[in-house]
């Protein structure tokens, strides 16, 4: 390793701060994190997504996601001519290993999907015991020590982002890497995305550049007619996206 | 186990969430509500003709109500946590509130009504019976052996009042199950304000048919004479309610076809392919149109008693099958298509697993076992052969 | 008169006892932190936040591997986070001497991003690898940390992972 003392003085403090929080196997909440100061969301920039599947793999590793189930996944759309209401969609193994080559006529693009962290969440509405809930900082979580595994929440989610973990027999879904974002890190999927197609956003942070992006660009949410107040925003999303 | 998918489904949607056990649940609670409504026909609406089935209907309702939570428990990922629904019920959740509706109906309506109606017999038997039954009777008397005419009159008035609130309670019991499905905006096959109403009426149909069949079977088994006037009346009510039920279901279907919203193309394809046999053939043709036609025929043509009994038996069986198919089509059908409206999956029902077919069969047989025990403990029949209901005053019901 | 309703009074007592039992059970069973923030176990928030971390984040990698940082800074892969290719490395960052990052197979890895696909953005560098390299491993010609061949031709001997 080749470094000058100057470089060390610059980089060591930053590394030390981040290092403290990533020591594997040392669970602790960040003492400086205040729930009321954050309102989490995410931006997906469709024109930037290359369908490499890094996010799906990273999420599976970070969160111990079982095979055959997906906390996040990537869909590939093919829209022939004007037929916006009849796209052809595929998601082989959730896009985990990328996508095989396919037809090149018409419109083709990738759409990463995840839990939309709805502010008016239908899944938390139907949970009979309060095992899934919206935190004060806007993340929808599942309390797996309390969940009955009744699957009502899975039925109630319009986006298909929930599943039952076969090992714990409880409901599970994207937690927006809550254990990371409360420590100043970004989510695993955003961390590994090579093109910046996925970006975490804190809607209560006035300096957040993604929050600024949302205010100045044409963005959409999935299934707005469901009135879930979804907080995952899609830039450059085609009307054919389900 | 690879599940074949046609078209595109969101990756987490491929495996069905709610199995045949969740089909059983609305079917069973439907039988409960329907049986109770039949019982209330006599108690509240003074339809004397159906009196021979009054107590049998109540016991049938209880047998099925006791079994109703079992498919739910077997389906849960953590049945040991199910008490949480009573400890920390989430008031916005239809499922949580239903736990209390169930409890209310069991304790405040059904058990209370049965107790009040049978109290005279219970007290009498507590003095004579021995062994386990004797113990049960003595427990059920709650330590009181007062059978004065005034106390019996109080029981009767209270029982009438309980049945009165029992009718909306029965509607609430099963209408709520309909609401559990009907309020899920994410699923267009379920989401409908008509769902609770359709569930209630189909429940009444199945419950009435079930009690009718049980009455015919049990009377036959006991070697007694079936009260044909009672049977005619039950069949008549069955037909009327069935016509209302069928109209409601057809209204839902016609409106869907006409409005043809975003989901219609996908649902229509599903009905024409995956649900063709269970919905069009079994539920509609065999399970609804045929019994209505048969029952209608008995109203128009004068058949002999023997012929009528046969027709009622066939119609009753077809009805019960049809209503089961309806529950199947709602629960399973609602999970066969993708919420992206771009694909379909399949339901692979296992046999000897926790949520398999064998379990479902056992759960359907269990209520009859419980009913057998209840009938032995609290016989619902007045024991002279042919019963003309109008000749039997309520106070002489015990033998 | 009371005598004739005695059985109902007894029933009411039974029901009152049952309700009292239910209330007692509830006090015993409902978790302490339930209702702290809403209708859920408040402690679940901290429990969720305390999960172990698998991805260290590129800041941590850059703390030690400054030479790679310098290399990357001069090429298009400057925007690619380390763990996008190298996988979750928090354990390695925690104990660099003992925990080594796994060896990468460039044939599979690079293709995931750069195999030509009609759904990828038109301006994104993509090739049909069969035509482009005939199946040869990508790092035969390209240095992954500075992929443009003209800038830094690959040295197969030193680039091969241990």
Short overview:
Chain A is α+β, with helices and mostly antiparallel strands and 242 residues long. Chain A is built from 7 helices and 11 strands.
Topology record:
The complex is a heterotrimer of chains A (242), B (399) and C (162).
Chain A: H1 5-22, E1 40-45, H2 54-63, E2 72-79, E3 88-90, E4 107-114, H3 122-126, E5 132-134, E6 140-142, H4 152-156, E7 163-165, E8 170-172, H5 178-181, H6 188-192, E9 198-202, H7 209-216, E10 219-220, E11 232-235
Parallel strand pairs in A: 1-11
Antiparallel strand pairs in A: 1-9, 2-3, 2-4, 5-6, 7-8, 10-11
Chain B: E1 6-7, H1 20-43, H2 54-67, H3 69-75, H4 84-87, H5 94-128, H6 131-140, H7 149-182, H8 195-221, H9 228-259, H10 264-272, H11 276-300, H12 305-331, H13 333-336, E2 343-344, H14 357-377
Antiparallel strand pairs in B: 1-2
Helix pairs in contact in B: 1-2, 1-3, 1-7, 1-8, 1-12, 1-14, 2-5, 2-8, 2-14, 5-6, 5-7, 7-8, 8-9, 8-12, 9-11, 9-12, 11-12
Chain C: H1 6-29, H2 43-49, H3 58-64, H4 66-73, H5 82-86, H6 90-94, H7 106-114, H8 129-133, H9 156-159
CATH architecture classification of chain A? 2-Layer Sandwich
Q: What is the overall silhouette of chain A?
A: globular
Q: Give the structural class of chain C.
A: mainly alpha
Q: What's the helix-strand series of chain C?
A: HHHHHHHHH
Q: Taking strands numbered 1, 2, ... along the chain, how are they ordered across the largest sheet of chain A?
A: 9-1-11-10
State the distance separating the first and last CA atoms of chain A. 49 Å
Oligomer: heterotrimer
Shape of chain C: elongated
Number of distinct helices of chain A: 7
Strand content of chain C: under 5%
Q: What can you tell me about this protein's structure?
A:
The complex is a heterotrimer of chains A (242), B (399) and C (162). Chain A contains seven helices and eleven strands. Chain A is globular and about 50 Å long. In chain A, the strands form four sheets. Chain A has a four-stranded mixed sheet. Chain A is α+β, with helices and mostly antiparallel strands. With 399 residues, chain B is mainly alpha-helical. Chain B has one domain (19-379). Chain B has helices spanning 20-43, 54-67, 69-75, 84-87, 94-128, 131-140, 149-182, 195-221, 228-259, 264-272, 276-300, 305-331, 333-336, 357-377, and strands spanning 6-7, 343-344. Chain B has a two-stranded antiparallel sheet with strand order 1-2. The relative contact order of chain B is 0.16. Chain C has helices at 6-29, 43-49, 58-64, 66-73, 82-86, 90-94, 106-114, 129-133, 156-159. Chain C has nine helices and no strands. In chain C, 29% of the residues are buried. Chains A and C meet through helix 1, helix 2, strand 2, strand 4 and strand 5 of A and helix 2, helix 3, helix 6 and helix 7 of C.
């Amino acid at each position: 390793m080749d470094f000058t003392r100057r470089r060390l003085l610059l980089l060591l403090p930053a590394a030390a701060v981040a290092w403290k929080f990533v020591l594997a196997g040392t669970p602790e909440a960040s003492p400086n994190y205040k729930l009321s100061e954050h309102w989490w969301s995410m931006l997906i920039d469709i024109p930037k997504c290359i369908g490499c599947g890094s996010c799906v793999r990273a999420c599976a590793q970070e969160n111990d996601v079982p095979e055959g189930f997906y906390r996040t996944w990537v869909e590939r759309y093919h829209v022939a001519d004007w037929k916006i209401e009849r796209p052809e969609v595929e998601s082989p193994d959730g896009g985990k290993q990328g996508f095989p080559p396919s037809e090149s006529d018409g419109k083709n693009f990738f759409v990463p999907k995840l839990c939309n962290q709805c502010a008016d969440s239908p899944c938390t509405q139907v949970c009979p015991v309060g095992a899934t809930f919206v935190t004060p900082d806007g993340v929808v979580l599942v309390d797996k020590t309390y969940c009955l595994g009744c699957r009502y929440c899975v039925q109630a989610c319009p986006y298909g982002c929930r599943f039952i973990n076969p090992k714990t027999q409880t409901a599970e879904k994207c937690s927006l890497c809550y254990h990371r974002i409360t420590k100043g890190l970004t989510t695993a999927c955003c961390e590994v995305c090579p093109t910046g197609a996925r970006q975490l956003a804190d809607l209560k942070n006035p300096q957040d550049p993604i929050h600024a992006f949302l205010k100045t660009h044409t963005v959409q949410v999935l299934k707005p007619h469901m009135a879930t107040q979804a907080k995952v925003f899609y830039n450059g999303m085609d009307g054919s996206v389900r | 186990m690879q599940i074949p998918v046609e078209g595109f489904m969101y990756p987490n949607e491929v495996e069905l969430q709610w199995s045949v056990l969740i089909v059983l649940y609305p079917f069973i609670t439907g039988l409960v509500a329907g049986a109770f409504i039949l019982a209330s026909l006599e108690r509240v609406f003074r339809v004397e003709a159906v009196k021979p089935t009054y107590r049998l209907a109540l016991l049938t309702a209880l047998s099925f109500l006791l079994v109703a939570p079992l498919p739910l428990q077997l389906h849960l990922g953590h049945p040991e946590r199910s008490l949480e629904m009573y400890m920390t019920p989430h008031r916005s959740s239809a499922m949580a509130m239903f736990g209390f509706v169930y409890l209310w109906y069991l304790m405040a309506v059904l058990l209370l009504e049965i107790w009040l109606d049978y109290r005279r017999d219970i007290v009498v038997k507590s003095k004579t019976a021995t062994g386990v039954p004797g113990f049960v009777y003595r427990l059920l008397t709650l330590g009181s052996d007062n059978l004065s005419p005034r106390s019996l009159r109080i029981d009767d008035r209270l029982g009438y009042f309980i049945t009165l609130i029992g009718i909306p309670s029965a509607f609430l019991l099963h209408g709520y199950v309909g609401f559990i499905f009907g309020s899920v905006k994410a699923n267009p096959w379920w989401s409908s304000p008509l769902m609770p109403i359709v569930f209630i009426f189909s429940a009444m149909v199945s419950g009435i048919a079930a009690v009718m069949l049980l009455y015919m079977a049990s009377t036959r088994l006991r070697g007694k004479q079936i009260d044909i006037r009672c049977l005619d009346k039950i069949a008549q009510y069955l037909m009327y309610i069935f016509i209302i039920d069928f109209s409601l279901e057809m209204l839902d279907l016609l409106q869907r076809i006409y409005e043809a919203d975003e989901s219609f193309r996908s649902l229509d394809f599903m009905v024409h392919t995956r649900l063709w046999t269970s919905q069009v053939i079994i539920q509609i043709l065999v399970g609804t149109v045929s019994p209505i036609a048969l029952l209608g025929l008995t109203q128009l043509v004068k058949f002999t008693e023997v012929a009528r009994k046969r027709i009622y038996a066939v119609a009753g069986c077809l009805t019960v099958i049809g209503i089961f198919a309806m529950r199947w089509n709602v629960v399973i059908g609602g999970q066969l298509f993708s919420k992206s409206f771009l694909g379909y999956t399949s339901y692979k029902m296992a046999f000897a697993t926790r949520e398999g077919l064998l379990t479902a069969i056992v759960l359907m047989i269990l209520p009859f076992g419980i009913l057998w025990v209840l009938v032995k403990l609290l016989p619902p029949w007045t024991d002279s052969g042919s019963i003309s209901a109008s000749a039997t005053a309520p106070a002489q019901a015990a033998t | 008169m009371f005598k004739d309703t005695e059985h109902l009074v007894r029933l009411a007592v039974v029901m009152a006892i049952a309700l009292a039992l239910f209330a007692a059970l509830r006090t015993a069973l409902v978790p302490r932190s339930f209702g702290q923030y809403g209708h859920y176990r408040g402690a679940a928030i901290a429990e969720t936040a305390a999960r172990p971390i698998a991805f260290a984040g590129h800041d941590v990698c850059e703390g030690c591997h400054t030479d790679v940082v310098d290399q990357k800074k001069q090429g298009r892969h400057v925007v690619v986070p380390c763990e996008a290719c190298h996988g979750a490395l928090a354990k390695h960052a925690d104990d660099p001497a003992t925990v080594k990052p796994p060896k990468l197979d460039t044939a599979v890895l690079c293709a995931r991003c750069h195999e030509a696909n009609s759904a990828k953005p038109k301006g994104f560098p993509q090739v049909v690898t069969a035509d482009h390299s005939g199946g040869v491993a990508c790092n035969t010609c390209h240095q992954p940390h500075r992929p443009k061949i003209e800038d830094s031709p690959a040295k197969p001997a030193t680039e091969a992972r241990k």
